[in-house]
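As a warm-up, study this chain.
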Amino acid sequence: MAYPAEFLEELKKRNRIVDVINSYVPLKRAGNLYTACCPFHNEKTPSFTVYERTESFYCFGCGVGGDVVSFVMKADNIDYGSAIEQLAQRAGLTVPDNGYDRESSDRRRRILDANREAAKYFHNQLTSGKYKEATDYISGRGLTAAVRHFGLGYSPPDKKLFTYLTDLGYKPNELADAFLVNRGGYSTFEHRIVFPIIDAAGNVVGFSARSLEKKPAEGQKYKNTNDTPAFSKRRNLYAMNFAKNSKEDFFILCEGQTDVIALHMSGFTNAIASLGTSFSEEQAALIRRYKNKVVICYDGDAPGIAKTNAVIKILSDAGVETKVVSLPDGCDPDEFINKYGKERFSLLLQKSIGQMDYRCGQVLSSYDLRSADQKTIAADKLADVIASVYSPVEREIYTVKYAKQLEVSEESFKTLIEIKHKKLKKANKKEEQAKIIRQSEGYGDRVNPDKLRMTRAANAEEAILGIAQISPEFLIQAEKDGVLNENDFKTNFNHRVYTALLDCVKNEGKYDISFISSKFTPDETGRITRMLISRTDLTDNSYGVFTEYARALREDEGPKENGAASYDDIQALINKKK
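Now compare it with the structure written out below.
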């Protein structure tokens, strides 16, 4: 056992899953369940379901699931031990030391501590006045007033950081794991202005550093911390630690750190930025955790426009209301603020346009509407954009608006849009159905790759393990009756689950997914939860059905009951939950 069962039960009792998840994403009651748009993948129709009775959750869209510990692990990108500690702190509990291997949790904590000390070191170097090139850059970019607030620093091209941190007791391999130094002991961010990246909890999780060389030897103007046990670029946003507390009900999403700093220094404390990578679904989920509106304020040049269109799709799919600020003359927010002042920028925010108008405007600006041929192409492209809208009311509004701009009849434009919408809807449904079938047959299954080769056996195993989570005593009884043992399991993953369940029941006399989740990854825990949910909605989970699946497994035949893993049942279950 990772932790004593009594401790885990008390932990979950004080951290009710509905309360914890509701602090990340707003839940809506649906009968005796709670639903939401999944915080782990982009969707408009809620398929994320929380079961208060069993203190569990499952997403029928992406397959993630588990208990409150699994949720925190996935949501905050932390390991099992760190999630336990976080929930214990939330509940005012003391974490027992016995039984759990704390190596991975301690490794993450050591990286966070090293990052904090490194941030202090970088800041002290910048403010020491010893490095004129660094201070000149800061003053030249108008960042002097932000140095303390944002903890800006400078990393000299030497080994002093290595010496400083090793003198504090950090080992060379820990510093390398944190991406703070290279193998030669030199700072990873040497001769760069350093921007600490601080997560919503206030931890220094990584750094973004801007080279002071006109032509950096590595070719990177900006260098970010690589993914570590404490940091992932896809899961963090610059200045979120400040912006989440803004009184505004929306975020201003920028491209770079200097843009964000310029806005914050001008009073726009709701500004955030992605971290040198394509905007991700995880970042959209992080945004939605705090606010449901975003104004995109990317550079006004061609690359900025392309990035804006990509971000619009991700945020819209995540259910975040999205608007766009159009900056003139190819300016970025930093340049605009310095040139025109905060009042002009505030006016731009007030004039921000909805993402549909922005996308449609991009289409119209690309064609000469005085030409019949160009107008025809523009109408077709606009119809593609409007056809992607889910709401029929919203489609009608944009149909009327842009039919006038195109100077075409509303009826003909609406007909074109509805034809495209039906085709798109049909294609999406077909893909969803194909995805469900592929998943049920094991295609692309990373959790249980053996399922593709042994689909019938795997389906029987999943039914057995689902029923066992409802009635764990069946495992002991089946072993006594000689109808099931670990050698009957054909797939490696399900064999591991069976062994963990059986050990749990024998040692604790009962079962809770918290008792075994330390042995599995969040994705694996989601699969185990799916097995439970698949059986919960079926009426007969008796010992007789359990032994029937056990016999089918020994004979390497699929289950005779039509309720475990067929496409129709999975589709019906998804429709019911939605």
